[in-house]
Structure formats: C-alpha cells, structure tokens
C-alpha cells in the first residue's frame, strides 16, 4: 500500500477519502516541522506540503521513495519544481477549489482599501480617532473606475466578473492576449504593463509566481502608478518589492494597498505594519471552512488520480 505524508492538519472527514486506498499520516496538531518531515520522508511515496512549507532538494533527496508531491495550493513556488523534474517526481496543484474564494477576497481587499474600511474600523474605536465631517478623510469610489489585472487567468477573470458587475472597466496584461470572446465577455482591453500601471485606478496582481516574476512590481513600476492608485496582491509576496511599496505608501506616492501575501510569511515587513493606508490579511483568501475542505478534497483527488486513475490530475511537472 502506498504511503502519503500530509504536513498539515487536515479535516479528518476529508482525509478519510484516502481510506482503503492508501496509508497516510497527518499531524495531531497544526503541522509537522521541517525536521520532522526530514526524519519521516524516506518511508513515504507521497508528500503533501501546504503553500507555506518549502519542499527543497534536501527533502526530495531524503524521500528515496517519493514519486508525487501533491501541493495544497494553486501556486507552487514553495516547491523546487525544477529539481522535482530532475528526480522524476510529479508535482500537482489545486487550481479549481481556490478559484472563486481568491477572486472574492481580492475584490474584498479592493473595496476595503479603496473605501478605507480597515482605516475607519481602527480609528472609530479610538476616542476622537477620526472626524465625522462630511468631507473629512474620504475614500475612493469603485463604480466607474478602471481595474487593471496583471495575470488574466482563471482567477483574474473571476475577479473581472465581480468588478464588471460593480460598474468597473477592465484592462489587463498577460503573457498572451486572450481570445476575443473572453475579452468581449468582460469588455476587457489588452494593454502593456506600462499602460496598465499608468492608467488604472485599481491594480490587482494575479499572475503566477516564478523566478521571472520576483519583484516584478518594484520602485520603477510603482512610480508609474497614479497617486490615487490602489494596489492589490493576492498572488505571491515575492512578486512585489515590499520595501519600495511601503515607501510609496508612506510618502503617498500611491493612495492605498491591500495585501494578502508577503515575501517572508508568516513575517510581515514592519514598515507595512506602521501604515494606515494598507489593509493586511494573513494569506486568508481561501480561509473559509468550505474552501479549505474543497482544497483538501482536490488535493486528495490528485493523489487518487495519479495512482488509480479515478480522477483527473492537475500536473505541474
């Protein structure tokens, strides 16, 4: 019987999907530490890391039986994919279950940052923390504004659907131009990254993380944005130069930001913590019970599909 090592505490009802098919181990508490995984991995055929557990050469070399890494996340920058490919280890991800929750959360951050919801909530709890004057400390509207989406894949399109329903116009930048039918569906305009950055009222980063996208949004790109621009990131933290972003927010070079991902999670850059014009959340885009269970089920279906052909498998390499 094949063996799977699941690095995080999974809903036991979801884990039961593996019963009768595979032996599996899950931690009793929150998750296994790296040293615990290193000690155990040599006995397992499958490793299931979550999006914050880095799976590198050392772990794969210890995993002499390892044939599959079934990632609990759509992004896979937590895995040395190139080395897995060299070792003949298949890597899978879960693109379907994260789709709507991530788009939903990106739009929530857009609203919260633009309309200053987080700021108002903090300040109203402090005596004389804010003014109730008609024109004091206003937010920015969403209706009638433009949203620039960097990475118009499935999540980007799900975000566009929400934005269009709220009266926004869409421009996007992608590695490739979308089919005309998809563009017409959202009345979306394909533009260069420079045009998107300079013309958008709201900017959402939804591109996949790779070695080529590290700090793709840096000082140069931020300086192109409008002083009233709102920047949203639900992709990956390493795609943004946090120092440059924090400086721009502090100096009011851009108006606000909403960030769900950070470069050194779970640590958050202390410069960001000092700012009132940024909404910060703990990689929580998929953090609902329903979404987590659906993610766990999709992850398990990748394992069962890989070994028993019972489900389609989402293979990265």
- What is the subunit arrangement here? single chain
Our estimate of the beta-strand percent is 5-15%
Number of helices: 13
CATH architecture of the largest domain: 3-Layer(aba) Sandwich
What is the CATH homologous superfamily assignment of the largest domain?
A: NAD(P)-binding Rossmann-like Domain
Unreliable stretches, pLDDT < 50, 5 or more residues? none
Q: Which structural class fits the helix and strand makeup?
A: alpha/beta
Mean of the pLDDT scores?
A: 96
The CATH topology name of the largest domain reads: Rossmann fold
Q: What is the tally of beta strands?
A: 12
Which H/E pattern describes the elements?
EHEHEHEHEHHEHEHEHEHEHEHEH
Q: Largest sheet, order of strands side by side? A: 8-7-6-9-10-11-12
Protein described:
The protein is of the alpha/beta class. It folds into 2 domains: 3-97 and 288-308, Rossmann fold; 99-280, NAD(P)-binding Rossmann-like Domain (Rossmann fold, 3-Layer(aba) Sandwich). It has 13 helices and 12 strands. It has helices spanning 12-15, 34-40, 57-62, 81-87, 99-114, 117-124, 154-165, 180-186, 193-199, 219-224, 242-250, 270-273, 289-308; strands spanning 3-6, 23-25, 46-48, 68-70, 90-92, 146-150, 169-173, 188-190, 202-205, 230-233, 256-259, 278-280. The strands form 2 sheets. It has a 7-stranded parallel β-sheet, with helices on both faces. Helix 5 crosses helix 7. The longest helix is centred in the C-terminal third of the chain and has 20 residues, at 289-308. The chain starts with a strand and ends in a 9-residue tail after the last helix.
